[in-house]
Amino acid sequence: MPAKRPRPQQKSSPPVHAVVSKPSPPPSAIAQRFGALGRSPLGFVLATVLLLLPCFWGAYIQAGDLSSHIYNSWLAQLVQTGKVSGLTLASQSTNILFDLILSGLFRSLGAATAQRIAVSLAVLVFVWGAFALASAASGRRAWAVLPCIAMLAYGWVFHMGFFDFYLSLGLCFCGLAAAWDPTPKRVAIAAPFFLLAFLAHALAFAWGAGLLAYLIAAKYVGDERRLQLTAVGVIAILAGRIAVGSLWRTRWTAAQIQLITGADQLQVFAAKYTLFFIALLLLWVILFVSLIRSQTKSALLSGLPLQLCILSAAAVFLLPGRIDIPGYRHGLVYIAERMSLTVGICLCALLASAKIGQAQRWSMAILAAVFFLMLFRDESALNAFEQQIGRAVASLPYGQRVLLGLDDDSLTRVNAITHMIDRECIGRCYSYANYEPSTWQFRVRAIAPNPYVASEYRDSILMQGGQYLVKPADLPLYQVSIDNSGRVGLLSLAPRRINGMRFCKVLPDAL
């Protein structure tokens, strides 16, 4: 038998050490409890209660035009009962939803309760609509960015009192969230939201409808061609600006580029709020860097949230800041300032996908807490001042005409004092300088000179600015003013004299 060949020895390979990634530390007990709360209905209930606190923490809701809106709800009742002349109620299809809600509640519950309920409803629609949009865009409940949404919800647009626009945006957020991955069924579900949004305000509706069209187009062009679609969208915005400018008189400024982040919404009353603008912008930059590190470049650029941010920012910068629309006696103004709110919410929807650590979560919560504490402090001062105006007006006999000759020149972006006289006149007197009827943009319209409100918008502006030449036909005409000792009282204005303006400091300093 042949001898067996020796089997060759196999070289032993070096031992292979498995590379095991270091497990992430388990969430803390507090984080686990908050996570469980966020998955339960109780979390939404508690968040809703906290979100509505600013609507109930003062004697009044300090929100600029809100005082004018509730005053015109009272005027509308007087028009309907035939108690005033020279005014009429116009039928219109937009810029009306919030006013209808406010007027209906006023008739049933009174002015004070109507304001609380109507504004609370608008806040809830806005916040939870934005939350739904951010959740749909990120694929998870967007609790992490809710503090940012809350600050934006009580920012510049809210305190200007543009509640028809504000409510319309909230409805558009709901519609976009419902149709995020558009199918015929989902678009049908979203349609009622957009119909109500148009009834509230056409400008916000146009933004929402444009983004809905973009979502539908993006689904059919595919990820590879979405950037080209974004470029087409920006070109369409530019073409829209050119078309509107060729039809109507418009105004555009390069300063609109300062509004393309949406963080400017936190610049509410005075210059001290610039600190919140800077802090929020810095926080968003940190979260955006985290988002870049967690996603590939192609996934980020082809993602819908970033593209919606780009389109919204382009609209803020490229569209006119003012449009004089035929049929109205005053232009559509503050377009860029209003639209910056859409960019802020779109950024929240984008950043909801980022890996947000505990440090960033606590930073957002602390920033929100300090922001709302500052609002509470300033609104308390404004409420106290409005109460002084109310006491002065209460001394008048019923049915007198009154102007407000007071202002605070430290208020940089939101003039919170101008319309205080409107709310205090309800059931007592007539706010002669109220602007709504003379613009023809609202339901109550001045169709002839009358003894209740200025029939010409130019007169209304001059009265509010202290530059109105009093006419003999205006008398008797009173003006709320302040003396050298700081006491708020009434003046009886003389004919052929400028009504004048007195300045006082209402808001406390930052420290």
Structure description:
- The chain is of the alpha/beta class.
- Helix 4 packs across helix 5, helix 5 crosses helix 15 and helix 8 runs antiparallel to helix 9.
- The relative contact order is 0.12.
- Relative helix content: 40-55%
Average pLDDT number: 90
Euclidean distance between termini CA atoms: 106 Å
Give, in spatial order, the strands making up the sheet with the most strands. 6-4-8-9
Largest sheet: 4 strands, mixed
Number of strands: 10
Please tell me how large the radius of gyration is: 28 Å
The coarse silhouette is globular
Structural class: alpha/beta
Give me the strand/helix succession.
HHHEHHHHHHHHEHHHEHHEEHEHEHEEE
Number of helical runs? 19
Query: What share of residues are in beta strands?
Result: 5-15%
Instruction: Give the quaternary arrangement of the chains.
Output: single chain
Question: Runs with pLDDT <50, length 5+?
Answer: 13-22
Which SSEs are present, and which pair or pack?
Blueprint: H1 29-38, H2 41-52, H3 66-80, E1 87-89, H4 97-109, H5 111-138, H6 146-153, H7 156-160, H8 163-178, H9 184-200, H10 202-221, H11 226-247, E2 249-251, H12 274-294, H13 297-301, H14 304-318, E3 322-324, H15 335-351, H16 358-394, E4 401-404, E5 406-407, H17 420-424, E6 430-431, H18 436-439, E7 444-446, H19 457-465, E8 477-482, E9 488-492, E10 502-503
Parallel strand pairs: 4-6, 4-8, 5-10
Antiparallel strand pairs: 1-7, 2-3, 8-9
Helix pairs in contact: 3-4, 4-5, 5-6, 5-8, 5-15, 6-15, 6-16, 8-9, 8-10, 9-10, 10-11, 10-14, 11-14, 12-16, 14-15
